[in-house]
Specification:
By secondary structure, the protein is mainly beta. It is 10% helix and 37% strand. The protein has seven helices and 50 strands. The strands form 21 sheets. Strands 39, 42, 43, 44, 45, 46, 47, 48, 49 and 50 form a ten-stranded antiparallel β-sheet that branches. The protein has a two-stranded antiparallel sheet with strand order 1-2. A two-stranded antiparallel sheet has the order 3-4. Bound molecules: zinc ion.
């Protein structure tokens, strides 16, 4: 049966065109008019194609399809099916002998019209294959006219496609590899400079389909921005446009709505807000929009809540606006500076110190920061100076540090424990006692604490033992309490301490005499002391503290009141000299008698003096010096009897006793 090479007979001659779309635009009525029309530019060296009649072939093929199962449609099979192609090539080669005459006949007739065409190559190949078939190898042969593919029998591929190493080539009727535009009976193809066929791509605004054939139904559109009264949109090359999607154009992302129009401004796309500027470009990073800062991440998402940008935290509202200043977020306060940056650590804001932890949270109440404690009030302000917190006083210095231990503040010493609490009352530090009053002041000097007197030296140390203070000698018990109105045996000798605490010297204490050192001298004979109000021993008010019996009377009773009727005789308690007598508004009629250099007795509220009384008069124990009355500040007739020792009132019971 007759088998013709589909390619040899059916394919069109080759036309090589410059990549000038005008040629195609001119031939294609469906092409858009905006493509400028110009005449086809044929290259001078290009072979002019002669289109052979393919009608016979079509009839042949359609009449006997079953006889040519290997016959394939190049549009469908050529680019993809390399096996089929290989079979065809082999078939063609094997039939070369059979077809040679008709081919050569055709070609030779053409050669006559085109004498420059080298048909001698065909003859040479035929000769070679006949003479030296075993030396020929299949492969590329290159000469000054181009490249050809030589078959193993020495012939060259002609008017046919061949897939070589994955690339699809076409060889013209002279066997040369075609480049550029190629017109075949079934359409136009484009072969790159290396001869390989272009598929599924645009060349010169012509779309080459998956088989490489120009699909004239696909109209070239200039890609780019288009605008109409509804806005901007983007035209793809195939005339379609993006809609409801993102598109990256010239390095920027744009979003096109469902109608394909470019959106601008804020847009909720998917679950995120985006901001597209007036040119439709999606913005990223910090953006100042309508008076607020926003941060769009690298994908353009508007961020909300806490965002760490670089090393800094920022907070954006649910609407994406960057916050500044004090902000309560969750349960905590934060401070975001004017640039929105979350601050940490110590911050001096509006005249106050605040401390934000490493998470930016403003701290309140007690905080240990570094090695020190600080106290921030409920508003986070660091406190300084004295602060009364939870029932205790604390002192924070000017830097806010809580102080401990001894602190001299405003000239006064305070004692603050390890927790910073100001101490009051007695405090023992080491072996030393101190006394802080209710204000925490460390006390010095004589202090009456409770019912006792204490003496703290200039350092606040409580003194004990024998101490000379202000020229007098005192005895301070181990507890620090001052001994008063009592005898103490010290180093084997007895000493007496007056009601004021001062040690007595050169004085009779009752029937005991203390010498110039204060020590009791047992060799001294006791003087007689007479009960000064004979016959009346009821004591209406004793020596010491009392409630004031009447307006103007002292609460400290410096003597003994002996109730007695008006006119009762008053006796000098011991021998001595009258040193004073007369009237005083509080003492009434009084008499003072000196018994020794240190001891004076005093008699008050007399109704009258004994006749002949005079200053300097010597009296003996038991001599009448006056009579009971109620003169001066008095509620009724009685004798007020006092004894002064070295100018101070002492307990008269040291000298007298009831008869
Ligand atoms: Zn009295």
């Amino acid at each position: 049966m007759k088998r013709k090479s589909f390619y040899a007979l059916g394919l069109a001659a080759v036309v090589a065109l410059t990549p000038n779309t005008a040629a195609f635009a001119a031939m294609q009525p469906g092409i858009q008019t905006e493509i400028p029309v110009a005449g086809p530019a044929l290259e001078e060296e290009t072979e002019t194609a002669i289109l052979t009649d393919t009608g016979d072939l079509s009839k042949d093929e359609s009449s006997a399809p079953e006889e040519q199962p290997e016959q394939v449609n190049p549009e469908e099979k050529m680019p993809e099916d390399s096996e089929n192609q290989q079979e065809q090539v082999n078939l063609t080669e094997s039939e070369n002998q059979e077809e040679a005459e008709s081919l050569e006949g055709q070609e030779s007739s053409q050669d006559q019209e085109e004498p420059e065409n080298p048909n001698d190559i065909q003859e040479d190949e035929t000769d070679d294959s006949q003479e030296q078939p075993e030396e020929l190898k299949e492969g590329w042969i290159t000469d000054e006219k181009g490249r050809r593919w030589q078959n193993s029998d020495g012939s060259f591929l002609q008017n046919t496609w061949k897939t070589i190493e994955g690339k699809n080539y076409y060889f013209d009727r002279n066997g040369y590899m075609v480049t550029g535009w190629l017109q075949l009976a079934d359409g136009w193809y484009y072969l790159q400079k290396d001869g390989s066929k272009v598929i599924s791509s645009w060349v010169d605004q012509c779309y080459l389909d998956a088989s490489g054939r120009w699909d004239t139904s696909v109209i070239w559109h200039t890609p780019g921005w288009q605008q109409n009264s509804n806005g901007w949109w983007w035209q793809n090359r195939d005339g379609s446009y993006p809609a409801s999607c993102w598109q990256k154009i010239d390095g920027s992302w744009y979003y096109f709505d469902g109608s394909g129009y470019m959106v601008t401004g804020w847009n909720l796309i998917g679950a995120s807000w985006y901001y597209l500027n007036g040119s439709g470009q999606m913005l990223t990073g910090w953006q100042y929009i309508n008076g607020s800062w926003y941060y769009m991440d690298t994908s353009g998402h508007m961020t909300t809540g806490w965002q760490k940008v670089g090393d800094t935290w920022y907070y954006m509202t649910a609407g994406g606006q960057m916050l500044t200043g004090w902000q309560q977020i969750g349960n905590c306060w934060y401070y975001l500076n004017g640039s929105g940056q979350m601050l940490t650590g110590w911050q001096y804001l509006n005249g106050c110190w605040y401390y934000m932890n490493s998470s930016g949270q403003m701290l309140t109440e007690w905080q240990e920061i570094g090695d020190s404690w600080y106290y921030m009030d409920g508003s986070g302000r660091m406190l300084t100076g004295w602060q009364y917190l939870n029932g205790c006083w604390y002192y924070m210095n000017g830097s806010g540090r809580m102080l401990t231990g001894w602190q001299q503040i405003g000239g006064i010493w305070y004692l603050l424990n390890d927790s910073g609490q100001m101490l009051t009352g007695w405090q023992q530090i080491g072996n030393i006692w101190y006394y802080m009053n209710s204000s925490g002041h460390m006390l010095t000097g004589w202090q009456q604490i409770g019912n006792c007197w204490y003496y703290m030296d200039g350092s606040g140390h409580m003194l004990t033992g024998l101490q000379t203070i202000g020229g007098a000698t005192y005895y301070l018990e181990d507890s620090g309490a001052m001994a008063a109105n009592t005898w103490k045996q010290l180093n084997g000798d007895w000493y007496h301490f007056s009601s004021g605490g001062a040690m007595d010297t050169n004085a009779w204490i009752g029937s005991y005499y203390v010498d110039e050192t204060g020590a009791w001298d047992p060799d001294q004979e006791a003087p007689d002391y007479v009960w000064p109000c004979p016959g009346y021993t009821r004591i209406s008010s004793d020596f010491g503290y009392r409630k004031s019996p009447t307006a103007g009377a002292s609460t400290y009773h410096n003597g003994i009141d002996m109730a007695a009727p008006q006119g009762t005789e008053i006796l000098s308690c011991s021998s001595g000299t009258v040193i004073a007598y007369g009237y005083n508004s509080s003492m009434g009629n009084y008499v003072k008698v000196r018994h020794s250099s240190s001891l004076v007795s005093v008699y008050m509220h007399m109704s009258s003096f004994v006749s002949g009384l005079s200053t300097g008069k010597t009296v003996q124990a038991g001599d009448v010096i006056g009579y009971v009355g109620s003169t001066g500040i008095s509620t009724g007739p009685h004798l007020h009897f006092s004894i002064m020792e070295n100018g101070s009132y002492i307990n008269p019971w040291n000298y007298i006793s009831k008869p």
